[in-house]
Design goal:
heterodimer; A: about 850 residues; 4 domains; about 15% strand; B: alpha/beta; Rossmann fold; six-stranded mixed sheet; four-stranded antiparallel sheet; globular
Chain lengths: ~850, ~240
């Protein structure tokens, strides 16, 4: 205790002189902690907002949803006994304007009780019931700005939905339950139940989802009670096929996406801490070098090596703590800053909160990262020879670092990884990312070593600037390993992001030419399928048309467990959220390959079998021979998994996660899903065909794949901007580290420059030597980043995303150029001072 | 009182001529005038020792002669060329051709071998025989066997021999030495001085050497004594020896 107090007292005295030499250290820790804390704090605010506003977002305390079936009288009676209820429907349909344009919409059918919670705001202001009421001829409708924009309609204009005629009475300015009811590729149109009944869509739309909402008589009960009540309702009506949600679980998919995105961004923050860690390590090494005489004096008067180490460690960790607290303060403020500047653009409920959890996590990760990079260089203090007091010289010979300090650094790193892992929602991806970063750091260290030793091999070149450059690269304490490691990691991350982002965008822009359909037509009734096909064939004789039966069903059992009890991996969890499209087939669908088990005989008539997407099966913990049950139209159907398929989703063609044997649904009502792939020359006339289809088959829903891809592309671009902004933090840290490394090596560089000028070297020659040195470092670093980043991007794109990978050579070449130019630019900027130094003064001081 | 000078007027016997040199170091309240109106000529082909107490400006004067320190006022002429009127790079090139310097702390490049260190001035001058000459020069100082060693692998005496070889390799007409034995033991120092003076005599170059060691100064032709930034006396070494 007394020793600690003495060490703290020494540290305090030492740090009194200020933080000169530690600015990069401080900023690196602050940036890393700031990034990790900010991302987590913003995410916590978002999730807390979902929780706080869960009731209005859900439209009640709990909801019960299922496809196609409205509440039965006994169900309605039971729910009414628990509180107020409202029943709405959500479906996709085609709206037709008076000039025959067809627009896909996400229609919402509401009853008089809607909304149970919250308020709908309309422009012009009017009660919703009046806006949706029928006048002599037309039913009322209100729509969001996206529909008004796409349709070109104005308030008071007519449009058709199914077989009914509507008048647009207002624009929806606020729809509190919009997230819970979801908006896909269409835009929102809200109509009354009477309007819906008149449209005829109720009997044809396979995608109609009926949602019963319950507002409890006493909404102050806690969330656990509401959950218990939902479970109880499901037990009361075991055959209902309801997907129950409570106000604490408004949109599992959105929550998962927020968590997933948060994790990804936080991992970038962790990479930034690791990159900055190199800067920390350099600063500590330079500190130990600067302080070697003080340390030697301490040892000369009786301090053991361990105390010398402890003193350096304590001082460095105090600085790390200061950096972490600065970063934490920035992180804590970020939700409030985000709410002020970006709140409206988020289009989500967002109330900033002070997140203690995010702050503690950020500071802890930051301190463990700092500890990882402080322990080893601080360990050098242990063996500082007292002889330095009797010996002059610009550098100190470095001995082998004691094993305990290497072990200590490894333990600190393992602790940091364990913490990051524990805090991750997707542990497998977190582990892969950390392993990738750690492997890259190790390989980069080796590349740095190879560059330094390669320079040693070329040390005998007779060209003086080249020899100076190579000498600087390999000298003890050279910036080589630091530059290669930190800048290499930053650039590698950039290459990965550019590689992944470029490939995803390319795929979304073009799809898979020749294989990606141009249009999907849903809700084609079996009775009208022949006429529909005929119309397509007549108008587009060269088009490729595919047709599969489609039903809606919800997975209710996975193996022996109820679906709601299954803890699925994140990549598979979405299949348990509500209804999914399912189909049946005698042969394996095109674009899929059986990877386990066997496909059934074409004339198979036995007990139900199902074919499952292999990735989803793994995510649900299922394999061939297990059972899975789906609820279709209130009927629970159990099927044994006959085989697993690898589905090629890249073409965006028709494919289903669940494909059953044809006999499973023999006689069950279903619709057809038809895809049409056009030859290039057919695209010019496709617009008029869609318009004519909407007139001839008003209940058929048309999805233009190109528009859908465009919307996905637009979302991807927004996310990609955020990811690039986060990764730029890593690059800034890498540049700071490079600056710090150059500053730490300035003493030796200054010495060389002055001696050379004493011997007759001009500034031009010195600049040429520096240019060569930084060019070699820049090229080595960038080439590694290009190679490692491309491999990582290829693995992510082909293995995780299951997309084709194409090298974006111009983009990647630009990164290499940026890497080289940055290294040279920063290197020259940092060494410029040495050219103007007064030789006599420097020689006098050294 | 005017400063005493060894020679009056600049002629072909003068290697270095200092006129009214003033130089201050530091800034603000810590600024100190180190050299105060020094006018001094150094004889061509002769060895001159600069002596005086610590802090009197000996090393600063040597740096000024080498063009490594620019005076606030006055001029430095070396073999008739005013280096005080030259730009930084012009001085560097001039120094590379005309001046060899030996320091107390050796100032070798730690990343270069002994041979490479010696070759640097010739390489800078664009000489194709740089390494052959460097090798010969290393042999002349008795270090032919240590050519591929790095400075950290050499003893202090060996490092100073390398520094001497580097100073001499370009056949400079001026050789400047700043306490060349200050970091060496007595025996090693003596051998370095023998080597330094022997090489100077053989090549006939002008030597200006800063030293504390009066017995060493006595081996030179002339002795300049500085005191508080002014020239206290300039005497021929023989006269000084006779006087003592």
């Amino acid at each position: 205790m007394r020793l600690l107090s003495t060490i703290l007292s020494f540290a305090r005295r030492d740090l009194r002189g200020g933080l000169k030499g530690f600015r990069v250290f401080l900023v690196c820790v602050a940036i890393g902690v700031g990034a990790v804390t900010s991302v987590n704090a913003v995410s916590q605010s978002l999730l807390a907002s979902f929780a706080m506003q869960g009731r209005s977002m859900l439209g009640g305390d709990l909801t019960l949803a299922r496809s196609l079936r409205v509440l039965e009288p006994d169900e309605r009676a039971y729910l009414t006994s628990l509180g107020r209820i409202s029943e709405i429907a959500i479906l996709r349909a085609m709206a037709r304007t008076h000039d025959d344009r067809a627009i896909m919409v996400d229609a919402k059918v509401v009853d008089d009780a809607y909304p149970l919670v919250g308020q709908i705001a309309l422009e012009p202001q009017a009660p919703l019931s009046r806006a949706l009421a029928k006048d002599d001829v037309l039913y009322g409708a209100v729509a969001d700005a996206a529909f008004i924009d796409r349709s070109g309609l104005r308030i008071g204009d007519r449009f058709d939905l199914g077989n009914a005629h509507f008048v647009l009475r207002g624009e929806i300015r606020s729809e509190p339950d919009r997230i819970a009811t979801g908006i896909g590729f269409g835009s929102r149109v809200m109509i009354s139940r009477a309007g819906f009944d008149a449209s005829g869509l109720g009997s044809t739309a396979s995608l109609t989802r009926w949602v019963a909402r319950l507002s409890l008589a006493n909404p102050d009960v806690d969330d656990a009670r509401v959950k218990a009540l939902a479970d109880d309702i499901l037990k009361q009506f075991p055959k209902s096929g309801w997907d129950a949600r409570t106000r604490a679980n408004v949109s599992p998919q959105l929550t998962r996406n927020v968590e997933r995105f948060t994790q990804f961004m936080a991992l970038i923050g962790v990479v930034s801490l690791i990159v900055g860690g190199v800067g920390v390590s350099i600063a500590v090494g330079a500190f130990v070098d600067r302080k070697r005489e003080s340390i030697a004096i301490l040892k000369a008067v009786g301090a053991p090596g361990g105390v010398a180490f402890a003193l350096v460690l304590v001082e460095m960790m105090l600085i790390a703590l200061a950096g972490a607290l600065i970063g934490a303060a920035v992180g804590a403020a970020s939700p409030f800053v985000a709410a002020h500047f970006a709140g409206p653009a988020l289009n989500l409920p967002f109330e900033p909160i002070f997140s203690g959890r995010a702050i503690v996590a950020g500071v802890a990760i930051g301190l463990l990262s700092a500890l990882t990079f402080v322990v080893a260089p601080a360990g050098r203090a242990h063996d500082t020879p007292v002889a330095v007091l009797f010996r002059s010289g610009a550098t100190m010979e470095g001995g082998r670092l004691r094993a305990r300090y290497i072990f200590g650094a490894l333990v600190a790193f393992a602790a940091m990884i364990a913490l990051v892992y524990a805090l991750s929602s997707e542990k497998r991806i977190a582990l892969m990312a950390i392993a990738g970063v750690a492997a890259s750091a190790v390989v980069l260290r080796a590349v740095g070593w190879a560059v330094a030793h390669g320079a040693a091999l070329g040390a005998n070149v007779r060209n003086l600037p080249a020899r100076l450059a190579l000498g600087n690269i390999r000298r003890p304490g050279a910036v080589t390993r630091s530059v290669v490691t930190s800048l290499g990691l930053g650039l590698t991350l950039l290459v990965v992001i550019v590689g992944v982002d470029g490939n995803v965008r390319r795929q979304l822009k073009a799809g898979d030419p020749g294989r990606t359909p141009d249009y999907f037509f849903a809700d084609v009734q079996s009775a009208q399928a022949a006429d529909f096909r005929k119309m397509l064939k007549t108008r587009q004789p060269d088009a490729t048309i595919e047709e599969v039966p489609m039903l809606r069903g919800r997975i209710v059992r996975v193996g022996s467990r109820r679906a709601e009890e299954v803890k699925a991996e994140q990549n598979a969890a979405w299949v348990l959220d509500g209804d999914r499209g399912i189909t049946y087939a005698a042969k394996p669908p095109p674009g899929s390959k059986v990877t386990a088990g066997r496909w059934w005989a074409a004339d198979y008539k036995g007990p139900p079998l199902v074919s499952l997407d292999g990735d989803i099966a793994r995510g649900l913990g299922l394999t061939v021979g297990d059972e899975i049950a789906v609820n279709v139209m209130g009927r629970e159907i159990s099927a044994k998994i006959a085989n697993l398929r690898e589905v090629d989703w890249r073409s965006f063609g028709i494919n289903f996660v669940l494909v059953f044997t044809p006999a499973t649904f023999a006689g069950a009502p279903h619709t057809e899903l038809i895809s049409m792939t056009l030859p290039p020359e057919g695209r010019a006339t496709a617009g008029s065909l869609v318009s004519d289809i909407s007139k001839a088959f008003p209940t058929v829903v048309t999805l233009a794949v190109r528009d859908a891809l465009q919307q996905a592309l637009s979302l991807t671009e927004k996310l990609s901007t955020a990811v690039r902004a986060a990764s730029s933090v890593t690059l800034v840290t890498a540049l700071l580290t490079l600056g710090g490394a150059l500053a730490a090596g300035q003493r030796a560089r200054l010495y060389d420059a002055v001696v050379l000028r004493m011997l007759g070297a001009t500034r031009r020659r010195l600049i040429l030597a520096y240019l060569l040195e930084f060019l070699v470092l820049g090229v080595a670093t960038s080439v590694f980043a290009l190679a490692a980043g491309s491999v990582a991007a290829q693995l992510i794109v082909t293995r995780l995303m299951k997309l084709d990978f194409v090298f974006d050579w111009p983009g990647l070449a630009a990164i290499v150029a940026i890497g080289c130019l940055t290294t040279i630019g920063l290197g020259l900027a940092a060494t410029w001072r040495t050219l103007g130094a007064k030789p006599a003064r420097v020689l006098r001081e050294l | 009182m005017p400063n005493p000078t060894l020679l009056t007027g600049v002629d072909d016997r003068t290697a270095i001529a200092l006129k009214s040199i003033r130089l201050s170091l530091g800034s603000g309240p810590t600024r100190v005038e180190v050299l105060k109106d020094i006018t001094l000529d150094f004889r061509r082909g002769k060895a001159t020792a600069i002596v005086g107490p610590s802090g009197c400006g000996k090393s600063t004067l040597l740096m000024t002669l080498a063009g490594l320190e620019r005076p606030d006022a006055g001029s430095v002429e070396i073999e008739g060329r005013a280096i005080t009127a030259m730009g930084e790079d012009e001085i560097a090139e001039f120094r590379g051709r005309k001046i060899g310097i030996v320091f107390q702390s050796f100032h070798l490049m730690p990343t270069m071998t002994a041979l490479e260190n010696v070759a640097v001035p010739l390489e800078l001058a664009g000489r194709s025989d740089a390494f052959a000459r460097a090798k010969a020069e290393l042999a002349a100082v008795g270090l032919a066997e240590r050519a591929s060693h790095y400075p950290l692998q050499l003893s202090g005496g060996e490092q100073q021999r390398v520094a001497l070889a580097r100073a001499l390799v370009g056949d400079p007409s001026i050789l400047l030495a700043d306490e060349p034995t200050g970091n060496l033991d007595e025996n090693t120092g003596a051998s370095i001085i023998d080597l330094l003076l022997g090489q100077r005599a053989r090549r006939g170059c002008t030597l200006v050497m800063v030293t504390h060691d009066l017995s060493l100064a006595a081996r030179c032709d002339d002795i300049v004594r500085l005191h508080s930034g002014t020239v206290e006396s300039v005497v021929a070494a023989r006269e000084a020896a006779a006087a003592s």
